[in-house]
Design brief:
single chain; Phosphoribosyl-aminoimidazole Synthetase, Chain A, domain 2; six-stranded mixed sheet; four-stranded mixed sheet; 13 helices; phosphoribosylformylglycinamidine cyclo-ligase activity; purine biosynthesis; EC 6.3.3.1; cytoplasm
Length: about 350
């Protein structure tokens, strides 16, 4: 159909750039994976406009919620054509944020937006999220898939929201932290989901490709960059059953320097540089980019993905429990009275 002036009229939503059929196909491809995360707490509501969850067994429940995205890590996945790990990234990132409050993650919702919806790509991301949810005992109760060519162009965005719950008395606020307490660091799996704008720029400027290798990595740079964000839910649950945990921090953007003080109730920390194992990917980035150590510490986790604060006398037992869960962990420093800052010795 043409107007008198010769301009082509847009006759459908698909011709304008959005495919309803592709969205429906994506939903069909991911349905089984999503439903596989549903336990007895999920209230069935076919065709509902929101996910429902039955909350029971709590005397004074407190809800904890968070929302975050995987950022420019999606550009690495796009370059390599491998997207499934992004689902685990966003589930584990959000679950760790909820965990740091003292709550247990219960439900998760995803948001995948793109300029052009490819059902298999979206289904792969959501299937990866569902697998991560099953491992953590979290219900994937809903989500949104959006196709917006005018906004995203060829880009992809992956976002998630998580809701958890605990008794009011189980909250970990940092109020119990005292000078002299031990700071324990739990091993990260690598970059997790932070610092990718710098990490990608370093490779580009140095002429290093995702298919290249680097000493110590044991795999390609691309495989290292796509390593999923590690979750700590099972490990912290095991620890809290045996030891009083006074503070917790998820080490994301800002590194130990900015995230650890948030868990210390106004106190600070003195950390022993070199007291934990740093994955070789950080040495690669440091060397290729000529990045100063202060900047590395402000951008990356440098091998510590989560911190817990326990009484000094409990440090050894706490480490034994964490090691028993299969988690590498180290006594990396102590709490000190230095006004909410982190020092490195």
């Amino acid at each position: 159909m043409r107007f008198a002036g010769g301009e082509v009229a847009v006759g459908s939503y698909e011709e304008a750039g959005v495919s309803i059929d592709a969205g429906n196909r994506a939903a069909a491809l991911m349905r089984a994976a999503v439903e596989s995360t549903h336990g007895p707490g999920v209230v069935p509501l076919p065709g509902g406009f929101a996910g429902l969850y039955r909350l029971s067994g709590y005397r004074e429940p407190v809800l904890a919620s968070t929302v975050d995205g995987v950022g420019t890590k999606v550009l690495v996945a796009d370059e390599l054509g491998r997207y499934t790990s992004l689902g685990a990234d966003i589930v584990n990132h959000c679950a760790n944020d909820v965990l740091a409050t003292g709550a247990r993650p219960l439900i998760f919702l995803d948001y995948v937006a793109s300029g052009r919806l490819i059902p298999e790509v979206v289904a792969g991301i959501v299937s990866g999220a569902a697998e991560a949810c099953r491992e953590l005992g979290v219900a994937l109760v809903g989500g949104e898939t959006a196709e917006m060519p005018d906004l995203y162009g060829s880009a992809l965005d992956v976002v998630g929201a998580c809701l958890g719950v605990c008794e009011r008395g189980e909250l970990v606020t940092g109020e119990l932290v005292r000078a002299g307490d031990a700071v324990l660091g739990l091993a990260s799996s690598g970059l997790h989901t932070n610092g990718y704008t710098l990490a990608r720029r370093v490779l580009a400027d140095a002429g290093v490709g995702y298919g290249d290798t680097w000493r110590g990595l044991g795999r390609t740079v691309g495989e290292e960059y796509l390593e999923p964000h590690r979750a700590y839910v099972r490990q912290i649950e095991a620890l809290r059953r045996e030891v009083e945990v006074r503070g917790m921090a998820h080490v994301t953007g800002g590194g130990l320097v900015e995230n650890l003080p948030r868990a210390l109730g106004g106190l600070g920390a003195r950390l022993r540089a070199g007291s934990w194992e740093e994955p070789p990917v950080f040495a690669m980035i440091r060397e290729l980019g000529g990045i100063p150590e202060d900047e590395m510490r402000r951008v990356f986790n440098l091998g510590v993905g989560f911190c817990v604060v326990v009484g000094a006398a409990e440090a050894g037992r706490a480490l034994k429990i964490l090691h028993g869960t299969g988690c590498k962990a180290w006594h990396i420093g102590e709490v000190v009275e230095n006004g909410g800052t982190v020092e490195f010795a």
